[in-house]
């Protein structure tokens, strides 16, 4: 009895075509994390449990069908969601100076490794006068639906305190380079003593204690859902996704990640799931590959 071949959208599984990508340098090798190979998926951070779950969900058939690769990605999200420790990292940093926090001092905050699994324990995350947040988490002239940091607005720093933006500092070109803020010491842990609420919660890292490393943001190799269809036989390489990899050379991560091991996975809060690269690895400076984003961004593009 014969069964149909498994086809995934946004993917090519032809060995001949995959070999062309390796030979012409479109990918770094058969173990490139964007490749639909066992070594590639393992390097990216796809777990065996997630792949088995995917195979169980789609079953087998005698008729040729194309499976949405989003099904596989959701299997990965569900698997890592239950067992990946939560950590904080800033990929596009904006400097924040907390004016009323004592100069030269810092404190260690006790932070749970997983919000729904106390058996995973806690870790210490340092908090200090100067921190980094994501640039996208600040808007000088916010819209009504923007609930993150803005001039005069109060937000919660995850696991830490409420802060309010008092001043925006720009360079000679008009680019925002620093925010001067104040914090409320009575909101430690993220709750206020007077019961006031804030809608925005931001992740952050202490500038003094964070370590810089490389983070690789992988995405689908093709930007066409059917790159292997007959209509693309001559120009299928033109369908390669130019944004299938973005390299962040100097991401700022919390210090606990400095000792991460090969193939160890984490959820970077509010960003996605990441795995330590098993090939490009230096002791004390692990490189992180994005396994999947927290949500399926491709689903929005297709609507």
Report on the architecture of this protein.
With 303 residues, the chain is of the alpha/beta class. It has two domains: 6-85 and 211-302, Ribosomal Protein L25, Chain P (Beta Barrel), CATH 2.40.240.10; 89-203, Ribosomal Protein L25, Chain P (Beta Barrel), CATH 2.40.240. 16% of the residues lie in helices and 34% in strands. The chain has five helices and 18 strands. It has helices spanning 15-23, 38-44, 48-58, 69-83, 297-302, and strands at 6-8, 65-67, 86-87, 89-90, 93-98, 106-112, 122-128, 130-134, 154-157, 162-170, 176-184, 201-202, 205-206, 211-218, 245-253, 265-268, 272-282, 285-293. The protein has a seven-stranded mixed beta sheet. Strands 12-9-10-11-5-8-13 form a seven-stranded mixed beta sheet, with no helix packed on it. Strands 1-2 form a two-stranded parallel ribbon. β9 and β10 (162-170) form a beta hairpin. It is elongated.
Summarize the SSE layout with pairings.
Layout (H helix, E strand, L loop, with lengths): L5 E3 L6 H9 L14 H7 L3 H11 L6 E3 L1 H15 L2 E2 L1 E2 L2 E6 L7 E7 L9 E7 L1 E5 L19 E4 L4 E9 L5 E9 L16 E2 L2 E2 L4 E8 L26 E9 L11 E4 L3 E11 L2 E9 L3 H6 L1
Parallel strand pairs: 1-2, 3-16, 5-11, 9-12, 14-18
Antiparallel strand pairs: 4-15, 5-8, 6-7, 8-13, 9-10, 10-11, 14-15, 16-17, 17-18
Briefly summarize what is shown:
Helix content is 16%, strand content 34%.
Fraction of residues in helices?
Answer: 10-25%
Biggest sheet record: 7 strands, mixed
Give me the CATH superfamily of the largest domain: Ribosomal Protein L25, Chain P
CATH topology of the largest domain: Ribosomal Protein L25, Chain P
> So what's the overall shape?
elongated
Secondary structure class reads alpha/beta
* Estimated share of beta-strand residues: 25-35%
Instruction: Specify Rg, calculated over alpha carbons.
Output: 22 Å
Q: For the terminal residues, how far apart are their CA atoms?
A: 39 Å
Number of self-contained structural domains: 2
Which architecture name of the largest domain does CATH use? Answer: Beta Barrel
Q: Quick check: average pLDDT? A: 93
Query: Number of DSSP strands?
Result: 18
Poorly predicted ranges (pLDDT <50, ≥5 residues)? Answer: none
What order do the helices and strands follow?
A: EHHHEHEEEEEEEEEEEEEEEEH
Which sequence of strands runs across the widest sheet?
Answer: 3-16-17-18-14-15-4
Can you count the helices? Answer: 5
Give the CATH level 1 class of the largest domain. Mainly Beta
């Amino acid at each position: 009895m014969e069964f149909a071949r498994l086809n995934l959208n946004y993917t090519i599984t032809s060995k001949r075509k995959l070999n062309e990508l390796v030979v012409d340098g479109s990918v770094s090798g058969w173990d490139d994390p964007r490749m639909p190979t066992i070594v590639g998926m393992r390097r990216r951070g796809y777990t065996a449990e997630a792949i088995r779950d995917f195979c169980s969900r789609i079953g087998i058939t005698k008729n040729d069908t194309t499976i949405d690769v989003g099904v596989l990605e959701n299997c990965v999200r569900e698997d890592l969601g239950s067992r990946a420790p939560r950590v904080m990292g800033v990929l596009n940093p904006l400097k924040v100076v907390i004016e009323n926090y004592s100069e030269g001092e810092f404190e260690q905050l006790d932070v749970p490794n997983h919000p729904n699994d106390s058996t995973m324990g806690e870790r210490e995350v340092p908090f200090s006068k100067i921190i980094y947040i994501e640039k996208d988490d600040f808007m000088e002239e916010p819209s009504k639906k923007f609930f993150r940091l803005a001039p005069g607005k109060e937000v919660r720093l995850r696991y830490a305190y409420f802060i309010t933006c008092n001043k925006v500092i720009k360079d000679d070109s008009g680019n925002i380079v620093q925010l001067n803020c104040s914090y409320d010491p009575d909101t430690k842990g993220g709750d206020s003593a007077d019961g006031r609420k804030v809608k925005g919660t931001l992740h952050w890292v202490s500038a003094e204690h964070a370590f810089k490393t490389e983070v690789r943001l992988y995405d689908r190799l093709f930007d066409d859902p059917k790159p292997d269809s007959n209509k693309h036989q001559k120009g299928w390489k033109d369908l390669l996704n130019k944004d299938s990899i973005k390299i962040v050379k100097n991401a700022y991560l919390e210090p606990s990640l400095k000792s991460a091991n090969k193939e160890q996975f984490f959820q970077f809060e509010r960003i996605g799931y990441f795995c330590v690269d098993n090939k490009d690895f230096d002791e004390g400076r692990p490189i992180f590959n994005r396994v999947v984003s927290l949500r399926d961004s491709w689903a929005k593009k297709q609507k």
